[in-house]
């Protein structure tokens, strides 16, 4: 990727690589949603991305996201906002109906708080359950061995719509080394779809893969890939409590 190229050029490159990955495994590119991770970038970069055809954006600082949502609304931009960060319990009240999808449900307590907020607001919160696919102490998420019990507990909570699973695998040196983790998450998804969400049209999403390994994730069944630096370039770190 050329760091000086426009967003449109970088977007076209990423989409072409997604299409090629889909072709290798007999999938349609229409099955994959490209989520542009716009956290820490100014709204002007999001406007540039939208002008290039990008609609789905991921943020993990909730106040920043709310500010960007207000700007998008003031400019009548029909953007789809995903919250992809850890959500503290005291910030659940900020997770309103303007969010398309929350990536990161990792406890029954959080599920019930989100659901209570949704019911009070008259909407249904769409969420992905985060799986700690590598059983890493440093990462949030439900351990694979506990996943099905957890899904059964949250499946019918009023105000909550469980639409799929997401995971961030352990850091590896080469993209191909993530393949077993992606494959395991896909297997867990399809098992849950058959055993727990049978007949549920909402449980459809597998969110996995980032800038360094999204092609492997697509080959292993990802329906959402989260791409940041390959689209926006390198970001500066921001220390903000969520």
Name a few traits of the molecule.
242 residues, alpha/beta, TIM Barrel, 8 strands
How does this structure look, described?
There is one protein chain. The chain has 242 residues and is α/β, with parallel strands linked by helices. Helix content is 37%, strand content 17%. An eight-stranded parallel β-sheet has the order 7-6-5-4-3-2-1-8. The chain starts with 6 loop residues before the first helix and ends in a 10-residue tail after the last helix. 38% of the residues are buried.
Broad shape: globular
Radius of gyration: 17 Å
Our estimate of the beta-strand percent is: 15-25%
CATH topology descriptor: TIM Barrel
First CA to last CA: what distance?
Answer: 31 Å
Query: What is the CATH superfamily classification?
Result: Alanine racemase
What's the total number of strands? Answer: 8
């Amino acid at each position: 990727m050329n760091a000086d190229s426009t967003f449109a050029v970088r977007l076209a490159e990423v989409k072409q690589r997604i299409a090629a990955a889909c072709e290798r495994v007999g999938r349609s590119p229409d099955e994959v949603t490209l989520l542009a991770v716009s956290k820490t970038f100014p709204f002007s970069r999001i406007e540039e991305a939208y002008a290039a055809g990008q609609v789905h954006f991921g943020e993990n600082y909730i106040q920043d996201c709310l500010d960007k949502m207000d700007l998008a609304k003031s400019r009548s931009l029909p953007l789809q906002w995903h919250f992809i960060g850890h959500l503290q319990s005291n910030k659940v009240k900020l997770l309103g109906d303007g969010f398309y999808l929350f990536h990161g449900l990792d406890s029954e307590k959080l599920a019930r708080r989100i659901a209570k907020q949704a019911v009070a607001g008259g909407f249904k919160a769409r969420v992905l359950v985060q799986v700690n696919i590598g059983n890493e102490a440093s990462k949030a998420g439900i351990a694979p061995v506990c996943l099905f019990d957890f899904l059964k507990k949250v499946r019918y909570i009023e105000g909550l719509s469980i639409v799929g699973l997401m995971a961030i695998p352990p850091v590896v040196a080469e993209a191909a080394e993530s393949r077993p983790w992606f494959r395991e998450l896909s297997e867990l998804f399809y098992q849950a779809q058959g055993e727990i969400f049978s007949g549920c049209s909402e449980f459809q999403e597998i969110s996995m893969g980032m800038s360094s390994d999204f092609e492997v994730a697509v080959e292993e069944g990802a329906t959402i890939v989260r791409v940041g630096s390959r689209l926006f370039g390198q970001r500066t770190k921001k220390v903000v409590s969520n």
